[in-house]
Amino acid sequence: MAQHYFYAVCPFGLEKLLADELHAVGAQRVEAGRGGCGFVGGTETAMAACLHSRTASRILMRVAQGGYWDSRDIYDLVKKTAWEKWFGPDHTIRVAATAQRCPLESVDFAVLRIKDAICDRFRELAGRRPDVERHNPDVRIQAFITYDQVTFYLDLAGEALFKRGWRLTHGEAPLKENLAAGLLMLSGWTPEMPLVDPFCGSGTIAIEAARMAANMAPGLTRSFAFEKLEGFDMDLWREMKEDARSAVNPYAKVQIRASDISSLVVEKARENAARAGLSAMLDDGRLTFTQGDAREVLPPEGVTGVLIANPPYGEQSNPKSASIRSMMKSVADHLKAHYAGWTAWMLTSDRTLPGQMRLKESRKIVLFNGPLECRFFRFDMVAGSNRRKAAAEAEES
Ligand SMILES: C[S@@+](CC[C@H](N)C(=O)[O-])C[C@H]1O[C@@H](n2cnc3c(N)ncnc32)[C@H](O)[C@@H]1O
Question: Which Pfam families match (predicted)?
Fold first, then answer.
């Protein structure tokens, strides 16, 4: 099969995890960059990446690249590119461009010229041209324009890959599903370990974990832009999905407890989980969503595990800052009293969280939640005086 160059986009901080996922689906020459990974493979590799990657946001396929001086060169490069290999005049298209140190006066004008060139090529070839569709195009063309180079990609995902197809409503500031998957992977959680999220909101972390435990491919219940493109073997795609479907184990042994102070939010999270194909786990209590205050929620009895949460941020700019800070101190006291032996991970944009909690983190990882720079703090919850010893050791290391 012909080999192509692809670029997989992911949240900043998850590049290494994404590289591992790409290797696992057979990608070659995987190179982690900032906010994504380049790789080489056939169209089947890209389809597998769309289906199986939990951390990617998009998979882009490079279709042309060249140097340019002005927008006429860009027009010429687009005009001589064989777009008809991938789509036809009856597809709708949308062109977008990202520019870095680009000397062109107007990137919008460049976008217009790219669109004109594609349409002119089709008009000459077929007597018809693709229509432009802003909101739900069949084909998304992404141009990256640097100082003297322009690269064109086809977006194979369509809707971003973190949209797994189950979310209808939004709780307060939901995490993106691929960031939640990244948190679970970075924490070292595996399905044998009990998992608790006491600030669950719409349930993203718990749902993502349950789907991992059930070995449910993240892309199993959604469609992708490549399904409308030429050059992607749809028989093979159906086989891939069939294999992924038969690999699902809805009876996987797992113990996931999610809770939130808002009963409304909890109800929505449970609905989300059902839509995410997790009804069996909900029915027999392997996955629970309950209303509760993080200052009071108890862990499952007689076991230790991993707590992963994305609490409300108590930054100075937040008008509720003072009350969130004092709440986080109480949450910490509660964890110290009841979660000895657990590992607690918190994602927050508030760097002062460990101070607020009077806990010393044993690890911190810089991640981006969209544009928001965050820290993913790890706290090892140890009983009584050991706690101070562990904190001192963490300080020394
Ligand atoms: C940043 S959101 C979590 C978003 C979640 N990770 C998601 O993906 O939807 C914080 C959540 O904490 C909840 N919350 C605030 N105070 C709480 C408390 N004392 N106990 C439990 N939940 C609380 C809010 O209702 C909100 O849903």
Answer: RlmL_1st, THUMP, UPF0020
The CA distance from 397 to 391, in Å, is 10
Q: Tell me how far apart the alpha carbons of residues 177 and 275 are, in angstroms, rounded to a whole number.
A: 14
CA-proximal residue: ligand 1, atom 1 (nearest): 312
Ligand 1: residue of 207, 261, 318 to mutate (most ligand atoms within 8 A of CB) is 261
Cross-strand partners of 32: 37
Using one digit for the tens of pLDDT, what is the confidence trace for 80-89? 999 999 999 9
Look at residue 296 and give its three-state secondary structure.
coil
Nearest-atom index, ligand 1, CA of 269: 9
Q: Round to whole Å and give the CA distance between 34 and 14.
A: 9
Nearest-CA residue for atom 7 of ligand 1: 174
296 lines ligand 1 (CB under 6 A): no
Residue with the larger pLDDT of the pair 390 and 256: 256
- Pick 177-216+249-396's CATH classification: 3.40.50.720, 1.10.3720.10, 3.40.640.10, 3.40.50.150: 3.40.50.150
Quickly tell me which residue has 């380049």 as its tokens. Answer: 38
- Cα of first residue to Cα of last residue in the chain, in angstroms, is 49
What are residue 222's phi and psi, to 5 degrees?
-145, 170
Q: What is the pLDDT of residues 140-171, one digit of tens each?
A: 999 999 999 999 999 999 999 999 999 986 54
Mutational test site, ligand 1, from 177, 178, 199, 307, max ligand atoms within 8 Å of CB: 199
Ligand 1 centroid distance, CA of 161 (Å): 24
Nearest CA-CA partner of 153 in 33, 53, 6: 6
